[in-house]
Amino acid sequence: MIEAAASDAPLPGDLRAHLGDCGACRAAFEEEQALFASIDGGLRVTANAEVPASLLPRVRARLDETEAGPNRPWVTNWLVLASAAVLVGAFFSARAVWRTHVARNPVVTAVKPNVISPEKHEPTVAPPVEQNFGSQRQVAVVSRPSVYKTAIRTESKPEVLVPKDQEVLLTEYAEQWRAHKHPLLLAQGLDATILTPLQVAPIQIAELDVKLLAEEKSQ
Ligand SMILES: [Zn+2]
Q1: How far is the centre of ligand 1, averaged over its atoms, from the C-alpha of 10 (Å)?
Q2: d(CA 215, ligand 1 centre) in Å
């Protein structure tokens, strides 16, 4: 009966006879017919919707785009290459950051040459025969090669590996040294005349009380 209601074909004779007798079946049949009719109408409206005038040019434009498609793989390849390059760059930069982090765990502190005690500095000062510094150096070379070595060493900034928490202390120490121009925590700067030589306290030694042994007593 539903199939009969769905189709526009004429009903078979027996069904039509039954629908004429049975009111309930007739009502159900009409309901089914109404349902199919509404579905049909909806479909018809959807399928025959008003096509906007701009649809055809748009479709043509899209078709032209896809026909010009051979450029597309190039674009995607370029994008893939660019993203890969970005990834590689990010990887290397991350490694560099990691390396610097590792290297900084023992902190490399560039200590100024002033940290080296001034006593070592003095012999490097060559007699001021000429104002040119290079010639001074050469004089130093001629006179004392060992002094020249120390001069070179003081010229380059020595690097000291210290733990990170000691870096602050070391830099502070270097700053103090630079400011005072004399070694701290060392007794060299002290005036020796102030120090009185240590006095040896007289030791009270009790005289030995020699006691005779018991055997000698008995004799
Ligand atoms: Zn019936």
Answers
A1: 18
A2: 152
- Scored b (16 or more CB within 10 A) or e, 125-159 reads ebeeeeeeeeebbebbeeeeeebbebbeebeeeee
Tell me the pLDDT band of 56, cut-offs 50, 70 and 90: confident
18 C-alpha to ligand 1 centroid (Å): 6
Does residue 82 fall inside a structural domain? yes
Tally of residues, the chain: 219
- Domain of 100, in residue numbers: 74-104
Task: Give the tokens for residue 28.
Answer: 């159900």
C-alpha 175 to ligand 1 mean position (Å): 111
Domain shared by 89 and 111, yes or no? no
User: Does any domain span residue 56?
Assistant: no
Give me the residue label for tokens 């089914």: 32
Question: In this structure, are residues 177 and 114 in contact, taking their beta carbons and an 8 Å threshold?
Answer: yes
- 42 alpha carbon – ligand 1 mean position (Å): 29
Residues 99 and 113 in one domain: no
- 38 C-alpha to ligand 1 centroid (Å): 24
114 in the same domain as 161: yes
Over residues 140-175, the pLDDT tens digits come to 444 454 555 555 555 556 676 777 778 888 788 888
